[in-house]
Amino acid sequence: MSELVSTRIRNTAGKLGLPHLAETINEYTRRADEGKMGYLDFVNLVLSEELAVRDDRRFRQGLRLSKLPHHKTLDEYDFSFQPDLDPRKVKDLATLSFVDGKANAALLGPPGVGKTHIAVALAVAACRAGYSIYFTSLDDMVRNLKAAEAAGRLTNKLGTYLRPSVLVVDEVGYQPLERAEANLVFQVISKRYEKGSIILTSNKTFSEWGQVFGDEVLATAILDRLLHHCEVISINGPSYRLKNRLKAIERDNDVA
Questions:
Q1: Deepest of 34, 72, 86, 241, by most Cβ within 10 A of its Cβ?
Q2: Average pLDDT, the chain
């Protein structure tokens, strides 16, 4: 390809918002020459590469906006440490069929068993698949909604938790809520009902949610909407954090 034609293509690619193509057109033509590609094969190569670049850019941008505490995947989860947890149930969730159906997923169990890890891994998978995601602890969400309500901006702030395709609500039950706070949670749950997915983690069984939300009737209303379309996974094994802490203590004792 002549330098003049290459320059024209780079300029056109820039105007079309295809900076990667502008930078790599010479590489594409080299690969086409080496592979003796026909015209259609060459066009398919360029479009496929540009789509992959655009998807990766969208994925990385989605992760930046998600507020996820980390980007761990299911491959990094040690299922062998939780023998009572059936990996197939978690991997079924990772197909994202529940997200496609605007359903929910609940991960229940004591602290340290990896509930947040799985929730984040599912969110990362959803982001990779093109869904918008947002992560928050329940306490942070309630605090932000209360502040917005006091400032007369509740409707606007609710949008933060209603717009994403997948909302991850972490640590439900670590702090009991007042009734007014629980009502804010109810607004989020009810407005997302059958419109978007929620992935939540909780150290409380559903029978204890009346204590969490300070009102049995309100807790029942929340659960009614949340569990109507919901996959529930209970993890009742040992704590990863405690395991790691005990290993550290053992190493210190060995050194001593």
A1: 72
A2: 88
Q: How far apart are CA 38 and CA 43, in angstroms?
A: 9
Do the domain assignments include residue 187? yes
Angstrom distance (rounded) from CA 185 to CA 213: 9
Q: What is the pLDDT of residue 207?
A: 95
Q: What is the maximum span of the chain, computed from C-alpha positions, in angstroms?
A: 75
- C-alpha 90/C-alpha 105 separation (Å) is 10
Tens of pLDDT, residues 27-85: 877 887 788 888 788 778 778 887 888 888 889 999 999 999 999 999 999 998 898 89
Number of domains in the chain: 2
In angstroms, the CA 34 to CA 44 distance is 16
Q: Are residues 99 and 219 in the same domain?
A: yes
Expressed as residue numbers, the domain containing 29 is 1-64
Q: Give the pLDDT confidence score for residue 44 in this predicted structure.
A: 84
* Residue 44 located in a structural domain: yes
Length of the chain measured in residues: 256
Q: Is the pLDDT of residue 2 over 60?
A: no
Say if CB 235 and CB 113 are below 8 A apart: yes
Supply the pLDDT for residue 248.
47
